[in-house]
Amino acid sequence: MYQAHKDRYQAMQYNRCGTSGLLLPAVSLGFWHNFGSKDVYDTMKAMCFTAFDNGITHFDLANNYGPEAGTAEENAGRIINQEMKSYRDELIISTKAGYPMWPGPYGDHGSRKYLIASLDQSLRRLGLEYVDIFYHHRPDDDTCIEETMCALDQIVRSGKALYAGLSNYRPEQLKKAVAILKELHTPFVINQNRYSLFERTIETNGFKDCCAENGLGIIAFSPLAQGLLTNKYLHGIPDDSRIRRDGRFLKESAVTPERVQAAARLNELAASRGQSLAQMALSWILRDGKVTSVLIGASRPEQITDNCKIVGHTDFTESELAEIERICAPVLEVRH
User: Fold this and answer.
1) In 129, 238, 254, 283, which residue has its Cα 20 to 30 A from 246's Cα atom?
2) Distance (Å, rounded) from C-alpha 68 to C-alpha 85?
3) In 3-state terms, the chain is what percent helix, strand and coil (to 5)?
């Protein structure tokens, strides 16, 4: 049975999620990779323990995380219920629905039918009575947004989730959702979006500012650009990389000369700050207080410990920020 240290919270920073009462750790642990049926259970358990010991109270899941789909929730549920059950009230557990999950017309998208049924399935896999945050995982242009938002409202009112969240929404969709959920008095508190030094869409399309204006938190996923903002690819593609092991989400074509060169120069700048490249990339996301938490993935407990060292080190000088922009400019120009 897991035994945590009472002083674990002292090393972590907790940020208010928008204007809500909910606090999230500056660093959250994502279960997108490395918690599925093909992964080692003892390693998963060690990563959860390490995260919690370092003050990471937020575990982020989705119905389709694995592989196979659903197995990340099953493994998380096993760890929570067998090892950490007495700490349930100290944890924030989030999950999502919006991508394909089961065959037929009702296992995908944003209908009331899908969202409510999916959460019921997720709760069974997790072995929990409720999750703290339930997200619609992606916008569905074929379903009336009122239906999707009303489903989220009912889910919260039923007690199966404490807060509602949205993921991958565009600014115009977010504004419509905000208006509906405000009218319903639904505790909608957070948006999950891709954001990194190499991916600035939420800045260029106004999404980041829109969240700040509406009192909403942001949690950034893929903050290390699937590993491109680490030292892993500075000297080629290693055999143990995600590209070699599972090329579904990061393909070899993503390791471009522009990105490798930028990563190498960023690595030098990070060293001058006393950080690794990964640590600086995470710190940069939290630099202005508009992002509540960075969502890290990990394959080893040591990676979690290293990432938590960013706490208290998210300030940048003007010259450092300017240098980061100069280094990243070629990558951003190619992307856009």
Assistant:
1) 283
2) 25
3) 45, 15, 40
Question: How close are the terminal C-alpha atoms of the chain, in Å?
Answer: 50
Mean pLDDT of the chain: 94
DSSP H or E stretch at residue 35 = none
- Tally the C-alpha atoms within 13 A of residue 137's C-alpha that lie toward its C-beta: 23
Q: What is the DSSP letter of 253?
A: G
DSSP 8-state secondary structure symbol assigned to residue 219:
E
Indicate if the alpha-carbon torsion angle 115, 167, 64, 86 is positive or negative. Answer: negative
pLDDT tens-digit readout, 275-296: 999 999 999 999 999 999 999 9
- What would the mean pLDDT of 294-323 be, rounded to a whole number? 98
The pTM of the whole model exceeds 0.85: yes
Report the DSSP pairing between strands 188-194 and 161-167.
parallel
Cβ density class 84-120: b for 16+ within 10 Å, e for less:
beeeeeebbbbbbbbbebeeeeebbbbbeebbbbbbe
